[in-house]
Design brief:
Largest sheet: 7 strands, mixed
Oligomer: single chain
Structural class: alpha/beta
Distance between the termini: 30 Å
Number of helices: 14
Number of strands: 20
C-alpha cells in the first residue's frame, strides 16, 4: 500500500486529467494540485473504505481523502500519548459541549476500525425493515467474508471474559461468545485499543494476522482495483454548482488539493460528515443536518476480586450479555453489558478518588474486572459548527435514558458481585465504597448527572439521517442527498435510529448498498 499522496502520484499530471472547461472554483489563484475522478470519497473507515473498493472494482476512477496518517502497524507502540495523538481526533479528548461525554473517533486510514475491539455483530433484520433497507441483509455476508469474520472460540476467552461469563451464568442471564474480525494474534491485550502492531491482511491460504481493520482489508483491495489514496489530507469544502456536487477542496501538508468529480461520497463519520456539510454551506433547507445524533453512551462498572485477573492480557472482548436488549420486541430502548478493561492510564483515569485513596485502588489493577454498559439511546443531540468551522456537539441524556442507564449500571454491579467481586468501583469523582448489594442504593440516589459520572462514546451515529421524506431526512434510501445531486453519504450518519449493537458491520453493509446504487445509476 502506498503510504503518501506523493508516492502514488509521482507520474501523475494533475492538469492533464482536468476538463477543458473548468468550474469557477478551479479558477482561483494559488492552486497547487488538481485531480479528476469519477468519485471522490471523503474518509477511509468502515464506510469510505467499502465504497472505494466497490466502486473501483466496478471500473470507476476513485480518489480517497483521509485526514489522518496512513499507519504502518509495525510502528504502533505502547506509549499511549503518542498513539492517542496518531489514532484519534483531538488526541482522544473530543467530547460533548459540556464535557460530560468523551467521544472516541478514529483518525487515519481505516478510521475507527484501527482501534476498535473487533466485535462483528449483526442487528436483527427487524431493525433493517424499520429503517426501510432490508435489502442490505445479503451484504453482511460479503462484508464478513472480506473482513475475515469468524466465531470466537473457547481459546479466545481470557480470564476477564471468563469471570464476566461466570457472573452472567450465576444470574441466569442471556449471553454468549461473539464473532470478531481478527486473525491469530499471539500478543493480544489491551494495547489493541491503540492499534494492532501485527495487523496484516489475509492471504489466499491464511486468515491474516491480528486485527482485520479496513486499513488491511478493504483499502488494499480498493488500491489494487485502481483507487488512489491521499492520506494526511483534510477535506475542507465540498463544491456544488447548479444543485450538483462537482468536487472537493482539501489541504495537504505541502499545499492544496482540488478534486473535480462527478460524485462525492461523504464518509467521514457522524461528527465530521455533518461538520463538513455545514462548513461547506451546503443546502440545509429542512434544518436536519447535524441533528438526530445518537451516541451509544457507555458507563464503566468495575469490580475488585481476590483472584488475580490480569484483564490487560488476551483478547479484550469475546463475550457479551444481551439479556436487556431485544431489538425485535423493544426496538427503542435497552442496553448491552460488555467486558471492558484498559491500560493502566485508562483505568487510572476511570477510577474514582484522589491521592492515597486512588493509589490504593490502582494497586489492585491486576484484580479488577469491568463491564461496559452500552446504552441503546433514544436521546438525540446535535452537531453544529462554531465560527472556526470546528464541531460543537450538544447532547444531554433524556430522563428515560438516564433511568435505563442507572438500571444497567446496577445490573452490571449485581453481575460482578455474582462473579465474586468484593467491591464495586464506579467512575464517580468521589470514591463511594460499594461492598454489598444494599450499597447499590448509592447509585440509585446519585443517578446520572453530567460531569458527576464519566461517560464515553465510540459510536456516534444518525446525523445525516436517511429516509424518503425530504422534509424529515437528509438523504434518501440510496444514500444520495435530497438537496444536492451527486452527493452521497456512506457512514453511521445514515442511521435513522440508534443501532443498539456495535455498528461496524452495519456501516459496511450500508456502504456496500450505497456503492451499488452509485454504480447502477
Amino acid at each position: 500500500m502506498a503510504d503518501s499522496y506523493s508516492a502514488m502520484n509521482k507520474s501523475q499530471s494533475w492538469l492533464s486529467n482536468a476538463t477543458n472547461i473548468r468550474p469557477s472554483w478551479l479558477k482561483k489563484k494559488g492552486l497547487q494540485r488538481q485531480e479528476r475522478a469519477d468519485v471522490c470519497v471523503i474518509g477511509s473507515g468502515a464506510g469510505g473504505a467499502v465504497v472505494a473498493k466497490e466502486l473501483a472494482e466496478a471500473g470507476l476512477s476513485v480518489i480517497i481523502l483521509e485526514a489522518g496518517e496512513n499507519h504502518d502497524p509495525s510502528t504502533f507502540n505502547t506509549y499511549e500519548p503518542e498513539m492517542l495523538r496518531r489514532l484519534f481526533w483531538d488526541s482522544g479528548l473530543r467530547g460533548t459541549r459540556d464535557n460530560a461525554i468523551v467521544i472516541s473517533q478514529g483518525k487515519g486510514v481505516g478510521g475507527s476500525t484501527v482501534h476498535n475491539l473487533c466485535y462483528a455483530v449483526r442487528p436483527p433484520q427487524a431493525l433493517l425493515y424499520r429503517w426501510q433497507v432490508p435489502e442490505i441483509w445479503p451484504h453482511y455476508n460479503q462484508v464478513e467474508q472480506t473482513l475475515g469474520v469468524t466465531q470466537m472460540q473457547e481459546t479466545d476467552v481470557n480470564l476477564l471474559n471468563a469471570v464476566i461469563r461466570r457472573g452472567c451464568e450465576a444470574m441466569r442471564w442471556r449471553g454468549g461468545l461473539q464473532r470478531h474480525n481478527r486473525g491469530e494474534c499471539p500478543t493480544c491485550g489491551v494495547q489493541c485499543l491503540f492499534g494492532c502492531p501485527v495487523s496484516k491482511a489475509k492471504q489466499i491460504d491464511s486468515r491474516g494476522t491480528g486485527k482485520q481493520s479496513m486499513a488491511v482489508t478493504y483499502i488494499p483491495l480498493a488500491l489494487a482495483a485502481g483507487a488512489k489514496l491521499y492520506s494526511d489530507c483534510l477535506a475542507e469544502k465540498i463544491h456544488v454548482e447548479k444543485g450538483r456536487a462537482v468536487g472537493v477542496s482539501a489541504r495537504l501538508p505541502s499545499g492544496t488539493l482540488h478534486i473535480q468529480s462527478d460524485i462525492v461520497v461523504l464518509a467521514a463519520g457522524a461528527i465530521n460528515s455533518p461538520q463538513l456539510w455545514l462548513k461547506s454551506q451546503l443546502p440545509n433547507t429542512n434544518r436536519r443536518v447535524g441533528k438526530n445524533l445518537h451516541l451509544h453512551p457507555a458507563a464503566f462498572v468495575g469490580g475488585i476480586f481476590n483472584e488475580t485477573i490480569n484483564g490487560q492480557l488476551g483478547i479484550p472482548q469475546s463475550y457479551y450479555i444481551d439479556q436487556f436488549l431485544d431489538l425485535r420486541r423493544a426496538p427503542d430502548s435497552g442496553y448491552l453489558l460488555m467486558p471492558a478493561f484498559g491500560s493502566q492510564m485508562i483505568v487510572s483515569a476511570s477510577l474514582p478518588g484522589f491521592g492515597e485513596d486512588h493509589r490504593e485502588l490502582m494497586e489492585r489493577y491486576r484484580h479488577i474486572a469491568a463491564l461496559l454498559v452500552l446504552l441503546h439511546d433514544r436521546t438525540t443531540g446535535r452537531v453544529s459548527v462554531n465560527y472556526t468551522g470546528s464541531p460543537n456537539i450538544t447532547y444531554r441524556l433524556r430522563r428515560s435514558d438516564r433511568k435505563v442507564l442507572v438500571e444497567g449500571i446496577i445490573n452490571a454491579a449485581r453481575l460482578l458481585f455474582a462473579a465474586g467481586a468484593t467491591e464495586i468501583l464506579m467512575p464517580y469523582t468521589q470514591h463511594f465504597p460499594i461492598k454489598t448489594e444494599a450499597d447499590l442504593d448509592i447509585i440509585r440516589q446519585r443517578g446520572i448527572v453530567p460531569n458527576d459520572i464519566m461517560l464515553a462514546s465510540s459510536h456516534p451515529q444518525g446525523t445525516l439521517r436517511m429516509g424518503e421524506n425530504p422534509n424529515r431526512n437528509v438523504v434518501n434510501l440510496s444514500g444520495e442527498s435530497h438537496a444536492v445531486k451527486g452527493l452521497f453519504v456512506a457512514d453511521a450518519s445514515l442511521f435513522p435510529t440508534s443501532v443498539g449493537v456495535p455498528p461496524t458491520l452495519t456501516i459496511a453493509a450500508l456502504a456496500t448498498h450505497v456503492a451499488r446504487q452509485i454504480a447502477a445509476n
